Amino acid sequence: MSVKDIFESMDYGPAPEDASDALIWLADRGGIAGHFINGQWGPLRDDFASTNPATGEKLAGVTKGTAAEVAIAVAAARKAQPKWAKDGAARAKVLYAIARLMQKNARLLAVMETLDNGKPIRESRDIDVPLAIRHFYHHAGFAQLMNEEMPDAEPLGVCGQIIPWNFPLLMLAWKIAPALAMGNTVVLKPAEYTSLSAMIFCEICTAAGVPPGVVNIVTGDGETGAALVDANVDKIVFTGSTAVGRIIREQTAGSGKALSLELGGKSPYIVFDDADLDSAVEGLVDAIWFNQGQVCCAGSRLLVQEGIADRFYAKLKSRMDGLRIGDPLDKCIDVGAIVDPTQLAQIKAMVDANTSGEMYQCDAPDGCFYPPTLVTGLAPADTLMQEEIFGPVLVACTFRTPAEAVEIANNTRYGLAASVWTENINLALDIAPKLVSGIVWVNATNLMDAAAGFGGVRESGFGREGGWEGLAGYTRPRGKLTKITAPTAFTKSDGTPAAPMDRTAKLYIGGKQARPDGGYSDPVFNKSGKLLGHASIANRKDLRNTVEANAAAKGWSKSTGHLRAQILYYIGENLSARADEFATRINQLTGGRTGTGEVDDAINHLFTWAAWADKHDGAAKGVPIRGVALAMNEPVGNIAILTDDTRPLMGLIEPLVPALAMGNRVTAVASQAFPLAATDFYQVLETSDLPAGVANILTGSHADLAPHMAAHANIDAVWSFSTADVSKIIEAKSTSNLKRTWVNHGMHRSWPSSIWRAQATEVKTIWIPYGE
Amino acid sequence: MQTMNANTTTLPQVQEPRNDGIPLDLSWVKAVQANTSAIERRAATLPGRRSVKKDFQAAWLCKAISLMDLTTLSGDDSEGRVRRLCAKARQPVRADLLKTLGMEGLTTGAICVYHDMVETAVDALRGTKIPVAAVSTGFPAGLSPLHLRLAEIGESVNAGAQEIDIVITRRHVLQGNWQALYDEMAQMRAACGDAHVKAILATGELGSLRNVARASVVCMMAGADFIKTSTGKEPINATLPVTLTMIRAIRDYHDRTGIRVGYKPAGGISKAKDALVYLSMIKDELGDRWLKPDLFRFGASSLLGDIERQLEHHVTGGYSAGWRHAIG
């Protein structure tokens, strides 16, 4: 084409980024990606190929890590950890050096990422790599500040980290930077499709003075990952599919390993009729056609207000026509290659299976490319509206009112992110808290930063990455753990009837005293065999009923902290009025003399959490935009608690009250051995203005109830302080809805208030760019 | 329609039906939204999303020249200065470079001058098909009496200006007096007769992108053939966010009426690279049809010099110097 021809056509023409430096880099290193353990390379084997998805050409051989190799890496990390944990300022210097060196190698990293993953060079150059660098800079700061600002925190130890292929370098940064900052050492496994940028990172680590063993990379596939999960690590951090997340949850159940999961999503993208429609259309380009839609937080579910739907779809289709799909190394390409033919086939199969709605597709080149696709006219009942496609496919339906938008948005198993487009600040700020998701973008999408928390709720996983809240995933409070022993219930009867009258304590469900579904109860005796009364034996149907009651009491979660404080104070006041009676009851139950002290503790605890109810403030994050990222503390939802059975009253109050204070609805199971203080306590609740259903109290077998709690899909978290051996079953069964679990693994410790607050809340990050 | 084809006498303006305007539709105007942050994000990322290299870049830069209103709007303008500029408009790039590029005959899109210089420019451009544009209506503030402003348009048209760049009364926008803006624009359009009218919004003085968007729509409703960002005399002139806002308004107007209105960013575009970004924004947001002089112009004075140097670099492979190219 002559200049004159182009003058007429005004085509863009090719603008290829030169890949030769990256290819030479690989060739110079023998063309094999493999392990980096204890500061050394190897072994390096060509077990499988890493290919450029855009061309199908082999880029390098990749070593498939064995369980033995994983163990060597973990041992190296274990050995290096104590020394690494010693000096935060020294860690800060190393993290800073990593950031600087990544900056120096930014182009090489970007090109390698694009070669390996197929994402447009524009994205790896302008988004992935800069965000990864920013993560190390930001966390160098956290390392520096840790001693001063987090004096009670200590590192977990060795973290096993498994990352996905969609943002190979960025996910590596999100995992390694906070782990290292907090004094942990890591063994990280890159995704099997995309190990190459991690190889550059290893060299950067060496150059930055990362001590041997602090950062270990083991390449491989799912089997290698499984070996890492099984290895002697203190924590597993996983980002990837919900299916694999479930497997890891089951695999680690009962092991005592901490776990963070950042999983899938089907994030709603809500456009109200007063939005800047053109900007909302452009936002979709960044939401669902960014990284070929292979983004866990992709705005993949478009919800448009009915009155503007036709106009919006027309604008969107015309924008789609302008998308340029092709060679990811071309600087003028919007949508690159799908990471692997397997993935392409999966996207194709899902879209081909759909028979609803109307489909609009761009053209895509042959090869491992999938055309940007829009499917309009769908309903929530359509599979494509529910299942994550993980490709450049946008599905759409309409809504009528803000309330309906929220209802449809929340009609999903996932809860990672959401976008809200409206020029009405009242509407935006009303909707944002109502969306069940870890992140909300107002008039924006896919904004991310090291200072802001990222992570989801429901089956999108748990734990946050980024910001102070992200550090919680890599530390634990200092403190002593003691082994718990189950208290022995007194079962011997002296044969006399209860005096003055035999009472069977009922269950407390939905603000009412309810007979147990099974109709059975257990006698409760004191030390000398005197019958104190009977306690109901709750079964799974009673649990079902309490969760129904929890769900109906959702107003509690929207109530003001001030109101919750008032009620908690009132409970304390009413308990105080009956302090002697409770102290006597406790002593009768346990045969000890701790009653008075325990009641005092309980009253004090109520006052402490009444104090916290309106003081667990969120934060406004210093993110690098003109705008604000609000970190809002939201209640987790419905929490089921197996209480510490050694303390009849305080065992209940200790977890119940923080949960209530933070706005959760609770189902608590009383001390199995000493249930009657808890059942007396619901009389206090009844007289203290606590709305019905907010707190339900069951009695019965912890071991019997635990699996049903864990499996109940409408329970958002299960806590166990029980002396029963239930930690493993709870963690394993929690995969039903990937609920958060907080279990004691047979050890008792006293938790600081910060941990109670963190466990009782989810941090929602609401991004609000501004400017007129 | 190509300006470089000397055998064609067709003016660039006559390729599209003129925008005769529509009645003022206040419900449309008030529904117009412009989210500043989102617009800025799009504008900020566009240069990274689009890249034009080698022959393509050369062709695009030639296109930028063909779309240029080569402008002088200074208090010390004289006949000699304007003739010099017109000579440059006729031969914007060194002949040997154009020959190598195969772009002989390339001219700028128009010459833009004050009323007093119209006759001189028309005379200097005789024999070419380069139109003369006059800034008018009490440029740049636009605060002289309305009847005088309207009369000024007539004078410029009589003097041979084929395009009139009018300035709107910013006050009407700032006060949300859309009827007044519409009426003013409609009268100016009428005063232009067959000459095409470019409405200068002076976006740097409108306070918000939302105002820019609404003023754009009202001026189009009132019959503007082009909407233009700035006089070049405001503290902030053409920017990418303003451009995005205005061309989206143009797109909306086209979607609803079928009429294509032109766009002219003016002031502050002085680098070849910037011109490429503008062209890619027009191409991506409005489409290729807008990349012709009847629908797009750069208002620029120093841009041409940088483009010339880039073109020489393209031809020779060596970086150029300003003195190797004729001044205008």
Please, could you describe this protein's structure?
The complex is a heterodimer of chains A (772) and B (328). Helices cover 41% and strands 19% of the residues of chain A. Chain A has a ten-stranded mixed β-sheet, with helices on both faces. Chain B is α/β, with parallel strands linked by helices and 328 residues long. Chain B has a single domain (22-322), classed as TIM Barrel (Alpha-Beta Barrel), CATH 3.20.20. Chain B has 13 helices and eight strands. Chain B has an eight-stranded parallel β-sheet with strand order 7-6-5-4-3-2-1-8.
Strand order of the largest sheet of chain A: 14-15-16-13-12-17-18-35-28-27
Count of separate structural domains of chain A: 3
Q: Which value, in Å, is the CA radius of gyration of chain A?
A: 28 Å
CATH fold label of chain B: TIM Barrel
Supply the number of helical segments of chain B: 13
Explain briefly what this protein structure is:
The complex is a heterodimer of chains A (772) and B (328). Helices cover 41% and strands 19% of the residues of chain A.
Question: What are the SSEs and their pairings?
Answer:
The complex is a heterodimer of chains A (772) and B (328).
Chain A: H1 3-9, H2 20-28, E1 32-33, E2 36-37, E3 40-41, E4 48-51, E5 58-62, H3 67-84, H4 88-104, H5 106-117, H6 121-149, E6 153-155, E7 158-162, H7 168-181, E8 185-189, H8 196-208, E9 215-217, H9 222-230, E10 235-239, H10 242-252, E11 258-262, E12 267-271, H11 277-288, E13 299-305, H12 309-321, H13 341-353, E14 358-361, E15 373-376, H14 383-386, E16 393-399, H15 402-409, E17 417-421, H16 425-434, E18 439-442, E19 461-462, H17 467-471, E20 475-477, E21 482-483, E22 504-505, E23 507-509, E24 512-514, E25 521-525, E26 531-536, H18 540-552, H19 555-558, H20 561-577, H21 579-590, H22 595-613, E27 619-621, E28 627-635, E29 638-642, H23 650-661, E30 665-669, H24 676-686, E31 695-698, H25 702-711, E32 717-720, H26 727-733, E33 740-743, E34 747-748, H27 753-760, E35 761-769
Parallel strand pairs in A: 1-5, 7-8, 7-10, 8-9, 10-11, 12-13, 12-17, 13-16, 15-16, 17-18, 18-35, 22-26, 29-30, 29-32, 30-31, 32-33
Antiparallel strand pairs in A: 2-3, 4-5, 6-20, 11-19, 14-15, 21-34, 23-24, 25-26, 27-28, 28-35
Helix pairs in contact in A: 3-9, 4-6, 4-8, 5-6, 5-8, 6-7, 11-12, 20-22, 21-22, 21-24, 22-23, 23-27, 25-26
Chain B: H1 26-31, H2 36-49, H3 54-66, E1 68-71, H4 79-90, H5 95-101, E2 110-114, H6 118-124, E3 132-135, H7 146-158, E4 163-167, H8 170-174, H9 178-192, E5 196-200, H10 209-221, E6 226-228, H11 240-257, E7 262-264, H12 272-285, E8 298-300, H13 303-316
Helix pairs in contact in B: 2-11, 3-12, 3-13, 7-9, 9-10, 10-11, 11-12
